[in-house]
Amino acid sequence: MNSVSAILAVALRAAMWRAAPAARFVGVPALVLCAFALSALHARVAIAEGAGSGPPGFEQAQRWLLKTELARLTPRKKDATNIYVLGIAGWADQDVFLKELDGALVAMSTILPIRGHWVRLVNHRQTLKSLPLANQHNFAAAVHELGERLDKEADIFILVMTSHGSPAGFGLRLPSAAVTQLTPQDVAATFDREGIKNRVVIVSACFSGTFVPALANDHTIVLTAADAKSPSFGCAPERDWTYFGDALFRQSIRPGRDFQQAFDSARMLIQGWELMDRARPSNPQAHFGAAMVAKLAPLFQAQQAGN
Fold first, then answer.
1. Which of 39, 100, 145, 216 could join 245 in a cystine, given CB atoms 3.0 to 4.6 angstroms apart?
2. Cα-based angle 6, 12, 18 (whole degrees, multiple of 5)
């Protein structure tokens, strides 16, 4: 089995786990919800290295879309800790990930000053002409461009990713059907190469706990939907959120709570839903670097006072 087949096979098994509880919730058979993964296994698929293959002008168009997205950023505020966010919706066949990403950005803007400071990379047919794709090349380019704008000692970089996942990493399925992934090592190496020191990484995907060991340090917070050996749930097409996104962003992130308090609340909600569904525990994971917790504390307090 080649690497593409392995990614898709794991995505299929993970999707069966993720969708089944959601199917009971919305009354849609789980096998129907997983039809996208079954069809993907029979599709003509290639790994999209770098910018990936595409029609003539593809790379130029992607550069223009990323430049346009970056042009929407508001100027950095001097003498302040600025926060920049890179959001990724990785799986083109389901809009739940795009909806979750947009909802996550709105939710986080209620507790941290991120409005005007986020960039999105999205795999979805509806955004092909308006947003840059979520592929390896654009990820590296976006981190580089944001790294050029932020003060690497004073500012904070938040990465929010939502998609399917495998034990090897975070799934990226392009609208062309090409499939690849971002591994924890890819993310860590890109951050290190660009000198991104102060980091918050939130990964909503099956097996996403695999990102914790690669990224955990004193200046990093990592929140994941599952441990490294378990699927997570809730990726049915009818949903606006996965279980993790719903629990964390919609129901737990609010003024007066920091990331640790929000994560603890979300974890309790997810445990309850999984017990009701008789589902295998996803066991969300977290790492709270002490320096990053201390750096965020006055920002949480200021945003709460402003609300």
1. 100
2. 130
